[in-house]
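Input.
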Amino acid sequence: MFYIGIDYSMRCPGVIIMPESGVFSECKIGYVSSNKPIKSLDNVFGSRIAPTDCQEARFDFLSTWTLNFISSYCLPVNSHVFMEDYAFGAHGRSFTIGENGGVLKHKLWLAGYPISLVEPTVLKKFATGKGNAKKEQMHEAFFKKTNVHLIKMFQPKSKKVGSPAGDIVDGFYLADYGRFISDTSPDDVNQ
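Output.
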């Protein structure tokens, strides 16, 4: 069984394919970036977003890239996708973000992947113990768990968590949350 965590966005989606062990070095990690240098590490593969002339072309490129990344590992049929649900307080381009996510969910559904949405506050509480954790707190919890410092790898001159580091952290915790809930009873998850 594999758990797929997708931190999906319009600029830098991150995808983590996690085996049952949950060990970071055994995960397969992919991300797309439009404006950062692409860095690939042992188990982290970066890609550049193709230039597009309209939103629909961007949605198609990102969803196709994500599905191709997942499909390239020939995962078992029971591999489950976990995505962060939309924030209730989101504003701005929320319809565009929803359309982008909808295209990916449709393609994943057509490919037969079960999809579960995780509320942002649930994900943050799972990772840090606080439902309102900031990106820096998420990265700190990730570093304590994995001993991998993504900010130093991707943004050595910054102390703030940006893309793709934050996207990889969120994707990792989405997959890890899926692994956790599959190993626990429904009563334990709701506590």
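The CA atoms of residues 89 and 120 lie 11 Å apart.
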